[in-house]
Hints:
Helix content: 40-55%
Protein name: DUF853 family protein
CATH class of the largest domain: Alpha Beta
Domain Helicase HerA-like C-terminal: 5-501
Oligomer: single chain
Organism: Methylomonas fluvii
Shape: globular
Strand order of the largest sheet: 2-1-14-13-12-3-11-10-4-9-5-6
Distance between the termini: 54 Å
Number of helices: 19
Pfam family, one: HerA_C
Amino acid sequence: MTEPLLIAKSQTAELCLLPSMANRHGLIAGATGTGKTITLQTLAEAFSQIGVPVFMADVKGDLSGISRAGGGNPKVEARLTELGLAADYAAMPTLFWDVMGKKGHPLRSTVSEMGPLLLARMLDLNEVQSGVLTAAFKIADDNGWLLLDLKDLRALLQYASENASELSGEYGSISAASVGAIQRGLLQLEHEGGENLFGEPALDFNDFLQTDGGRGVINILAADTLYNSPRVYATLLLWLLSELFENLPEAGDLDKPKLVFFFDEAHLLFNDAPAALLQKIEQVVRLIRSKGVGVYFVSQNPLDIPDVILGQLGNRVQHALRAFTPRDQKAVKAAAETFRANPDVDVETAITELGVGEALVSFLDAKGTPMPVQRAMIKPPSSHVGAVSEAERQESINTSVIAGHYEKQVDRESAYEILKGRAEKVAPPESASESGDSGSGFNWGEVLLGGVGDATKSRCGRSSGQSVLEAAAKSAARSIGQEVGKQIIRGVLGSLLGGRR
């Protein structure tokens, strides 16, 4: 049996997390600056040292130090002395990931793998728009069209909009307004860097499950930039968790987890989440432990986590909370009531008095029962506290076992290429002199001045065949000028009209 993991020390006892109970999930909570990041780092190290891989997002940029040995930090040395622990500095095997591909290996999904439910959440679509997106995915599935990146999805939506009357009988109403809203959402997502998230090679989840010299590899997602788009950040992490659930086999009761997944800034996952998504989250958290995965939510306030999820988090580390407002006071009371009582600890009072690095701790015992809460100091990490230099980070990236694999992006035939080929067969491209734009094969002058294609004119003098997307693009082009307008038109209308690939 794997030895218990020392996480904290009280005045009377060592507080250890049992590896066999680690997949019963957990919560790390506390106000900003109370020590949550150090607790996360200490837990991640402890799992790594017993051969358990870890995934965590680095939203502040200060977890990269886990890849380098500690030492030379007076505060860490003072805390070790206070706890009576010997210094045992060591670096942990680390893989850096980054959706943008700058601070780690590129992390990608395909549009198909993300699926309509999570993509709708990422695009902030309403129920009707989500239904249209789901119909578009079904059209692609029925025709065998791969949806790999955003240009595939744009091409598919354009096809669905142009053929809405023929498709409505089988797939329901596909309104131009809903398609337009989805396309605008995709444009915003691309503006936020989301285009980097989709494509191939997509993430192989086996790369999250590696060990190195008997220690679990710690996978760190650079999320300091991604965090500026909270909905994208939260949806991406939920997708990762969902894919682990879908891909891993049943494991039963294990001596230790296969993987531990830390979900930092967890409140973003639940903010304004629709009921269908909350139900999916609850299902994943409830069932994923049978796959050998432990999920640890990290949040400022326990009230940020829905009760149905909070009740499944057996291992808890509660740092200080501040009771400045009625909601804060409610959070203090709620946090106190979730712990197993200890007659020696006034939990509700202690929560507001805890110092930095101090916490109320309750782990599960061998029977799966929460142990009485104790006030304790968190054990300092063995690795470096704080960020490493860019040169050190790049060295880790260049020498990793997967160096170069995800950096070589591929673009195989998918929905975009198939639909583009269809369009070219139906309407061969005009000559450069007729098109007015020899570089693109498309008449940008007509777009900018209001005349697209051969659409007939209505009584008001406008093109009756003009789509909502084209009208929006023209309006944008007229308002900000021809050159910038071209770029927006390409982003909105997609590659079918000759934009960039």
